[in-house]
Design a protein that fits this description.
Chain lengths: ~675, ~325
């Protein structure tokens, strides 16, 4: 009875509001379990083998399902089976190669789409098979697809060669190039490392051990796509492009794609989690265990534990280009979650916690340190700050590292959001050690000056010229806000006597300088592709050197011992031996200082009281299938918070009458 | 008239060619294809992926001269695409630009046409009213308000409108867009109001000056001498004659209704052509951006010619020679 009353009240309020208020949504949606989220930049592509940006993944993460997934609550991140029945183990082959065998669940279905009808009349969908996963892997290698992850997935035996063969045959033979895509792949195949063993069984063979390959199966790059959709939506002769018309098998179906204003995902009733709740599939069931503190945070609520996913009926993304209106709409109840905009930071966060005003609105704050790092780097190929300077340059780098106070930087420029970094590995990743204190990352100006003097640059003076040692800080942003941040670093270095000049250019010009190796000190960042230390430590591995190979080792750091340890570590699973190797690598970096590890960014997420089960992931992974919305509570709150204030309209009308009427009367009287 | 039109069209064509050359220098010489590619495929993409993207988008062709095939250069391709209105695909997401223009025109027109029409329907009568009450306090107050309205930045109207009418008074959604007819007016109300207020001051000032100038002309004195009432003089004589210079202003604006308002669309989240232009700038989407600049210059030239033609239609005394 109470529920019915509440529901009626909510409908009534919503109806009143829709008539005369600021509600941007249709009345009939007010009591639906819809998650409303803003987005700023439109997705570039919805092709899962190509999409790389966060906003792309926000959509395709729900449309395309993956063979593996991440446990929603556990940290460090743990792989769980998705469309695959289990997380496969590495199988050592007799020729020294490594294989992984995936077994797909039965009764997996693609979303209904006219593309299927084109090739099999009368059919609107079909089941997902191992050959579809194989097809997706071949797409990654297809040069026409331009997938950004071929480097990583190219570790699959024969995949890169397949791409070359395909390209050559297309160039040499126009008839081949005109064939249907699946036929082209068949003729350019087979690929030794992609073996379809049965309708539901797929084996991946790698030339070398690379356990991180499994993480790629938790990302949409390896999601199965139907060849029918690729063939139908080729973007030619006015036909739609597959990048704009996804056909996946995930828990939500894309029902509307106005990517400049509105994107709508509807619950997929053919998703295996909905069709087969009895399977209790880990990626389709709310988890029963989590990380320490999750139970206290209400994330293991018995009302949800063990229930089939998803709880939402729809996810609505609305385009918002400006942060302040977006945040206002969040406070009005029209978005369910929000970040904290800097303009309202003091109003929302006080002394690191949620302000009483926000708590009064029932809003909760979730803090999460992202698996990412921001760092200052030295170009190790440079004659002064680099490796060729020997011990002298090493002491210079150590001194400069000691001069940077990251905590102060975060206080001044990020409202304290972030964690001063000690090593390249951020929290949540195997190898992160909360107790470790890097001796060169504890701000100490006296020690810095001492090291500088030992290096032969006492008080920053170059003895050969008698003038201050001049260094260049090369940056790719000329904006006022960024310049303030760069000025922070140079001012800290000035305190130990170093004259570091900021060389600010556009980002493109900066990239060009880096490509040519014409830079000295720089700042950069890295966000994890997957939660493994290899994805951070490879940033300092010699083969990844930016100047030599165009890789992400922007410091051009090269240390044979580090490289040997890296080779060993990357092929290992998370064992104490692996940890010991990571610690040794850490010691090398600690001493050599190719980087000044600055900070791990921290995200503050705000949620309304009607959102249930919220836990930010940091990684770009789909989590909304775990969320629930109390739509009735939301409708009541919206009604309460958004009653229009009408008296100013009447007051304005009255003022106009008071001003105009006497004027008209006077004028007419004068005319007469 | 015909000779004049041909001359103007030829002049316009030369301007367009100049614009195209300028665009080429700006987009193909200043920025490198690597810059565009990196923005499109992402920061982490390896060099070979960048090369694939560049080749797939034709940015690997010689810029000016190709001895094997002189027509196969970036310059020739640029001119061919623009002059045949085959704009190609966006650098950011490979969507055909013509499709994007079609999608953006609707939302832009949904805002710009009502704004244009309402601006005229409200601005001209108000200017006439102020001119009618010239030298009274209504005129003076009207002038002060107009100058005040003109002096304030459009950005302030937008932010102020969103803050006061959207946030404090909760009359309208602060931002957003939905083309469904049942909710569209709700989203357009605030940008329309803001756009109207922002443009009203200048409009009233200009139109009032025209009308007041007309009232001092001989034909008005003659009308008065014949005993015509003041209201009749304003509506029948002053309004009709005053509309000629106003028309110049108005016709010039018509072509730009298609390109939308960059500020209003950006701040209110309206997915029109103005918003597309801003998105293209932010995404280094040069293919879309050069198309938008080209279309803008084309419309400008067209607007100039239309204005001249409309003069002859409105005022038989004007002859274009």
């Amino acid at each position: 009875m109470r529920g019915a009353l509440r529901r009626s009240a909510a409908v009534l309020f919503a109806a009143i509001l829709a008539g005369c208020g600021n509600d941007p949504y249709p009345l009939e949606d007010s009591l639906e379990k819809i998650l409303y989220q803003p987005f700023d930049d439109p997705p570039k592509t919805l092709d899962p083998q190509v999409a790389y940006s966060v906003v792309d993944h926000q959509v395709i993460g729900y449309v395309y399902d993956t063979l593996l997934g991440y446990h929603y609550l556990k940290r460090p991140f743990t792989l769980i089976p998705g469309m695959a029945e289990t997380v496969p183990e590495a199988i050592g082959l007799s020729d020294g190669r490594v294989a992984y065998r995936f077994r797909l669940r039965p009764d997996l279905w693609f979303h209904e789409d006219p593309a299927f009808e084109k090739f099999s009349p009368g059919t609107r969908t079909r089941t997902v098979e191992a050959s579809d996963v194989a097809f997706s892997l071949l797409r990654v290698a297809d040069p026409a697809v331009v997938s950004p992850v071929i480097e990583a997935l190219g570790k699959i035996s024969g995949l890169v060669d397949f791409g070359k063969r395909l390209d050559e045959r297309r160039r040499a033979d126009p008839e081949f190039a005109a064939l249907r895509i699946d036929e082209q792949y068949r003729r350019a195949g087979p690929v030794d490392g992609v073996r379809v063993l049965g309708p539901l069984e797929l084996e991946i063979v790698l030339d070398d051990a690379y356990p991180q390959i499994l993480y790629w199966f938790a990302m949409p790059f390896t999601s199965p796509v139907p060849w029918e959709a690729i063939a139908a939506y080729d973007g030619v002769d006015g036909r739609e492009s597959f990048a704009e018309h996804p056909v996946g098998s995930g828990p939500f179906v894309l029902s509307r794609y106005d990517k400049r204003s509105r994107i709508v995902l509807e619950r997929n009733d053919r998703w295996y989690g909905v069709l087969h709740p009895e399977w209790k599939a880990p990626a389709a069931t709310y988890p029963s265990e989590g990380a320490p503190g999750d139970a206290e945070a209400g994330l293991l609520d018995p009302d949800y534990v063990g229930r089939p996913l998803p709880f939402l009926s729809r996810i609505e993304f609305r385009r918002e280009k400006e942060p302040i209106p977006t945040f206002t709409k969040f406070l009005q109840g029209y978005y369910d979650a929000s970040g904290v905009v800097k303009e309202s930071f003091d109003r929302v966060i006080q002394k690191g916690e949620l302000s009483p005003e926000m708590r009064g609105l029932g809003i909760t704050l979730a803090k999460s340190v992202e698996p990412a790092i921001s760092y200052l780097g030295f170009n190790m190929d440079d004659a002064i700050v680099g490796a060729s300077g020997g011990e002298r340059s090493e002491k210079l780098r150590q001194a400069m590292s000691l001069a940077i106070d990251s905590k102060e930087f975060l206080r001044l420029f990020a409202n304290g959001r972030g964690l001063p970094a000690q090593t390249p590995i951020p929290p949540g990743i195997f190898g992160y050690d909360a107790g470790y204190q890097n001796p060169f990352r504890q701000p100490d100006l006296d020690l810095a000056k001492k090291l500088l003097a030992e290096a032969g640059w006492a008080d920053g003076i170059d003895p050969t010229t008698g003038r201050p040692l001049r260094l260049t800080f090369d940056v790719g942003d000329t904006g006022a806000a960024a310049m303030l941040q760069f000025g922070f670093y140079t001012s800290r270095w000035r305190r130990i006597g170093l004259d570091v000049e900021i060389a600010a250019t556009s980002y493109n010009q900066f990239q060009d300088k880096v490509r040519r190796g014409a830079y000295q000190i720089f700042t950069w960042g890295w966000v994890a592709d997957y939660p493994d230390p290899e994805n951070f430590l490879f940033l300092l591995w010699t083969p990844m050197s930016r100047t030599k190979s165009g890789g992400p080792n922007t410091a051009n750091f090269s240390n044979p011992r580090y490289d040997a340890l890296f080779e060993q570590m990357k092929a290992m699973t998370d064992t104490p031996e692996r940890l010991a190797i990571i610690h040794e690598m850490r010691s090398i970096l600690e001493q050599e200082r190719p980087w000044i590890e600055n900070f791990y960014p921290e995200r503050y997420a705000l949620y309304h009281g009607w959102v249930r089960n919220e836990k930010p992931a940091g990684l770009s992974i789909p989590t909304a299938k775990y969320l629930d919305i109390d739509a009735e509570l939301r409708a009541l709150r919206r009604a309460e918070w958004n009653v229009p204030i009408t008296w100013p309209a009447w007051a304005l009308a009255a003022i106009l009458v008071v001003v105009i009427v006497p004027g008209v009367v006077t004028f007419l009287r004068e005319r007469q | 008239m015909l000779a004049y039109l041909v001359r103007r069209l030829a002049g316009g064509a030369v301007t367009i060619v100049g614009v195209l050359l300028f665009l080429f220098v700006l987009f193909f010489l200043v920025a490198t294809p690597e810059d565009v590619a990196r923005k499109a495929v992402g920061e982490k993409a390896p060099p070979e992926v960048l090369e694939q993207w560049i080749a797939a988008h034709g940015y690997d062709k010689p810029r000016f001269w190709n001895p094997d095939d002189p027509a196969d250069t970036m310059l020739a391709e640029h001119f061919r695409r623009m002059l045949t209105f085959d704009f190609g695909s966006s650098d950011a997401d490979d969507v055909p630009i013509s499709k994007r223009l079609r999608e953006g025109a609707g939302p832009s027109l949904a805002l710009s046409v009502p704004l244009f029409v309402l601006g005229l329907l409200i601005g001209i009568p108000l200017a006439l009213l102020v001119a009618f009450f010239r030298e009274t306090y209504i005129d003076r107050v009207g002038l002060v308000i107009s100058v005040l309205l003109m002096s304030v930045s459009a950005l302030l109207y937008i932010i102020g409108g969103q803050y006061v009418l959207g946030k404090l008074l909760r009359w309208f959604p602060i931002s957003g867009f939905d083309p469904s007819p049942e909710v569209l007016p709700r989203f357009l109300a605030l940008p329309l109001l803001v756009g109207l207020v922002a443009g009203l001051g200048g409009g009233i000032r200009f139109d009032r000056t025209v009308f007041v100038e007309e009232t001092s002309k001989d034909y008005v004195r003659t009308a008065r001498a014949k005993g015509a009432g003041e209201a009749r003089i304003m509506l029948r004589h002053v309004l009709r004659n005053g509309l000629i210079p106003i028309l110049t202003n108005v016709v010039l604006q018509i072509p730009f209704l298609f390109t939308g308002s960059i500020l209003l669309e950006s701040f209110f989240g309206i997915p029109g052509l103005g918003s597309i232009t801003v998105d293209a700038i932010q995404a280094n989407d040069f293919a879309t951006l050069r198309t938008m600049v080209f279309i803008g210059s084309l419309l400008f030239v067209l607007g100039q010619i239309l204005t001249d033609v409309s003069y002859t239609l409105a005022d038989p005394r004007v002859r274009l020679e």
